[in-house]
Amino acid sequence: MSDELKHYMRAEVAIIIVSYNSEHHIEACLRSVLEQRRAVEQDVIVVDNASTDRTVAVVREKFPTVRLFTSPRNVGFAAANNLAAQQTESDYIFLLNPDTIVLDHAIDVLVEFARTNPGYGIYGGRTVKLDGKLEPSSCWGLPSLWSLAMFASGLSSLFPRNRLLDPESLGQWPRDTVREVGVITGCMLMAHRSAWEKLGGMDERYFLYGEDTDFSMRARQNGYRPVICPAARIVHEVGQSSATPTHKLLMLYRGKVCFFRTHYSGVFLQLTLGFLVAGVGLRSLLSRLRTLRTPGPVSNDWPALWRVRREWIAGYPEKQ
Questions:
Q1: Which end of the chain is more exposed for a tag (fewer CB within 10 A), N or C?
Q2: Region 3-236: CATH code
Q3: DSSP conformational letter for 161
């Protein structure tokens, strides 16, 4: 092993970016990672999940200091992150989406926050849109029977970001204070190595979506306290990892069901799955009614998701 490789592997933080057809985003993301570095030594790793565009070429040609691993097939988000984490000895594992841009030395800021506050173990930050406005998806509340009942009734959609009726959204909190949360999303998630190893990394049954909810849940079960540090900011273009909104919904609901089947059982599991199906069915019906009443194009995503409910209600299959 070369001295240079040993240096990278022992950097304080390993920044892991899983790419899939990310040609139009990866350059800006990596450039921001490198340009926003202040003092914390970084090991920047890209794992490409069999992209068919020029993602790999862009990384190789423009970022020679970035360690690149290419998979012959798309193994999914969780498995690719686990693979990269095995290639480094860094104190912190920092997951970052390729459709993000690092702002205000965010990686250094989050590492410094973790050094000062080691008890949390799992850390996230604040995501914003290109115009600087809040993009609240950096964190969520954990799903509960109440939140699913609100989804089934349609109230969570009628009253979005209402603390009572849409509890997973965490209400109107603008992510501007240090706060423990149920779920830190994988677009920007950092874990101390000891926490990552204790949890065994991410559950590789999750191909895309749901793995961060599962990871956060298991972290809490093991005594860690996922926390948001608002000073660590990134721009995140939500949804760039899926080809179409319908495809995203299918993967999202597979991930949700996989989470419920992993952590719930008995009557509680049946209730959660029933609420989930009811909520999708309600939105499908309303979408169809809107199509009849409204001239012009109307989104068909919910009816499409309803038609394939037997596919996503099984969740992701057990890892072979």
A1: C
A2: 3.90.550.10
A3: T
Residues of the chain with CATH 3.90.550.10: 3-236
Q: What angle do CA 208, 136, 110 make, to 5 degrees?
A: 85
How does DSSP classify residue 167?
G
Write the CB contacts of 259 (distance below 8 Å, at least 6 apart in sequence).
Answer: 143, 210, 213, 214, 217
How far apart CA 27 and CA 285 sit, in angstroms, is 42
Specify the residue for token string 């050094």: 115
Element (H, E) at 188: strand 188-192
Reported as a single tens digit per residue, the pLDDT across 106-124 is: 999 999 999 999 999 999 9
Which residues neighbour 230 within 8 Å (Cβ) at sequence distance 6 or greater? 125, 126, 175, 176, 177, 178
Q: How much is the CA Rg of the chain, to the nearest whole Å?
A: 20
Give the number of other Cβ atoms within 10 Å of residue 49's Cβ: 22
pTM summary value: 0.93
